[in-house]
């Protein structure tokens, strides 16, 4: 059963540190770390490809890519929390919207601002970065937002996750870096290998992530692999 939030929304100018702490939780730290490491790795691979090293001239391209990617990350996970607030009161009651530390209005403002910033600043970096970010946002929106809400369907939900994390980000961000360094666009085997590895890894994430969320997903009719097979049978299947 869903629970009523008993906390009052945090206001930035009243409790700035507490508000920033909630913003950090709202941003889903593990995804922020993952996005940051992914962009950094692609930057370093691109530098190695052109036989260059980190310097003040080319590090600007890293920052130009990192900011919209992080904003896009917050938009995607934030939108999911806005749509899943009642489910999260069961599955993830510690999240700011579910716990009441952020109101729906605050969440909408954060999602709207980060989404706009992601789109605007990505196109300032050029077409490859712009296409990458916009495509990621579109898939992330389709994943969470009704009436499409692809997360209701386990195969399509998994497809969204590994497409964005595995394919779109890796190929698109690398092409942005390599074009910034050389004014040409091409891929190298190292990036294709990284992409294949991340696709496999994110498929595993897409499969495992719903195991702890069985109760809330069942109550709100979110069909996952765990629900289809049953938690115990699903875990046995994964172990095998």
TrEMBL record:
It comes from the Bacteria. The chain crosses the membrane at residues 31-49, 61-82, 126-143, 155-179, 191-208. It is found in: Membrane. It is a multi-pass membrane protein. GO terms for cellular component: membrane. Keywords: Membrane, Transferase, Transmembrane, Transmembrane helix. Its main location: membrane. It holds the Pfam family UbiA. GO terms for molecular function: transferase activity, transferring alkyl or aryl (other than methyl) groups. Residues 131-184 form the SSD domain. Belongs to the UbiA prenyltransferase family. This is Homogentisate prenyltransferase. It comes from Crocosphaera watsonii WH 0005.
């Amino acid at each position: 059963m869903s629970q009523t939030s008993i906390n009052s929304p945090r206001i930035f100018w009243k409790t700035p540190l507490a508000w920033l702490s909630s913003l950090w939780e709202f941003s889903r730290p593990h995804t922020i770390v993952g996005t940051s490491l992914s962009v950094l790795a692609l930057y370093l691979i691109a530098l190695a490809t052109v036989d260059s090293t980190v310097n003040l001239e080319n590090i600007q391209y890293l920052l130009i890519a990192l900011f919209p990617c992080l904003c896009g990350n917050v938009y995607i996970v934030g939108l999911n929390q806005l749509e899943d607030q009642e489910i999260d009161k069961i599955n993830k009651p510690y999240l700011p919207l579910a716990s009441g530390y952020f109101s729906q209005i605050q969440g909408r403002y954060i999602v709207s601002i980060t989404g706009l910033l992601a789109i605007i600043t990505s196109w300032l970096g050029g077409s490859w970065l712009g296409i990458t970010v916009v495509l990621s946002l579109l898939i992330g929106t389709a994943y969470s937002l009704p009436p499409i809400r692809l997360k209701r369907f386990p195969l399509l939900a998994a497809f969204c996750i590994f497409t964005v994390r595995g394919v779109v980000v890796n190929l698109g961000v690398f092409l942005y870096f390599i074009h910034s360094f050389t004014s040409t666009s091409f891929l190298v085997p190292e990036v294709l290998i990284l992409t294949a590895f991340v696709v496999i890894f994110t498929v595993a994430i897409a499969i495992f992530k719903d195991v702890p969320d069985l109760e809330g997903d069942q109550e709100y009719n979110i069909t996952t692999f765990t629900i289809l097979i049953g938690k115990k049978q699903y875990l046995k299947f994964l172990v095998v």
